[in-house]
């Protein structure tokens, strides 16, 4: 399963971990991903989304129906 938010599209960030001696190794910063179930009242069913915590705040602010409508226009599957 990919580490990508279905609502916001957040993905891992890449870069270098720099030690005290300035030795560099590659690393990645993962978004805070959660699997959450939402009740979709317009379709009278539950949907399961893999969202970041920022995506959860977006759903709380805009509403699940508006977010699902945007996801459908982008072609996102859930």
From TrEMBL:
Region span, Disordered: 1-26
Stored Pfam families: Ribosomal_L28
Gene3D superfamilies per UniProt: Ribosomal protein L28/L24
A GO BP annotation: translation
Sample GO molecular function, one term: structural constituent of ribosome
InterPro entries in the cross-refs: Ribosomal_bL28 (IPR026569), Ribosomal_bL28/bL31-like_sf (IPR034704), Ribosomal_bL28_bact-type (IPR001383), Ribosomal_bL28_sf (IPR037147)
Keywords: Ribonucleoprotein, Ribosomal protein
Signal peptide positions on this chain: none
Gene Ontology, cellular component aspect: ribonucleoprotein complex; ribosome
Highest taxon, organism lineage: Bacteria
HAMAP family reported in the protein's UniProt record: Ribosomal_bL28
Family: Belongs to the bacterial ribosomal protein bL28 family.
Descriptive protein name: Large ribosomal subunit protein bL28
Annotated organism of origin: Saccharopolyspora flava
Gene name per UniProt: rpmB
């Amino acid at each position: 399963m990919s580490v990508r938010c279905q609502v916001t599209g957040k993905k891992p960030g890449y870069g270098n971990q720099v030690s005290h001696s300035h030795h560099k190794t590659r690393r990645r910063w993962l978004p805070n991903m959660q699997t959450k179930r939402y009740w979709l009242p317009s379709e009278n069913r539950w949907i399961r989304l893999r969202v970041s915590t920022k995506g959860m705040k977006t759903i709380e602010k805009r509403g699940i129906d508006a977010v699902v409508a945007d996801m459908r226009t982008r072609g996102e599957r859930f």
